[in-house]
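Q: Here's a chain of 161 amino acids. Please give me its 3D structure as tokens.
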Amino acid sequence: MTASGYSPPMATARAQSPIPQDVYDSLEQLIFGAIGLTSFALSQSAATDLTLPQWRALVVIGRSKSIRVGEIAARIGMSLPSTSRLIGRLERRGYVSTERDESDRRATLVRMTATGHLVRDTVIARRRQLMDAALVAYADRLPKDLSRGLAILAKAFDRYE
């Protein structure tokens, strides 16, 4: 229990998991750091008022030529109405465009605009600069097969991108 009276829940890794607890702990630290790094990169971009959910939507939208609002909602873990409002805000700022899906007039397709691509690419470039600055001090201690290990982890988490 902390001084504030908050008691964090115990780790919930499966008792029979073949993955050691320290791997879960390290991944949690990496994820927390990545979120912080992304937030910092967003705060330094021209689009400083982008929220993390808006950023997540831009990432999802940017991976497709066009994508339905419902699929965006499912991938970012938001309700359809909340996602529609989020997309509306991104559209008003010129980051995405929307149109009715000709194959299903009930659905809306979302596409990244040139401005949206520029914002996304700028944030990613800044985040990579921050990663480089953070990692350079550890370059000689990084495992030789780190890239391979990270690629395996990325594949394991593909379903959440």
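Q: Can you summarize the key feature?
A: The mean pLDDT is 87.
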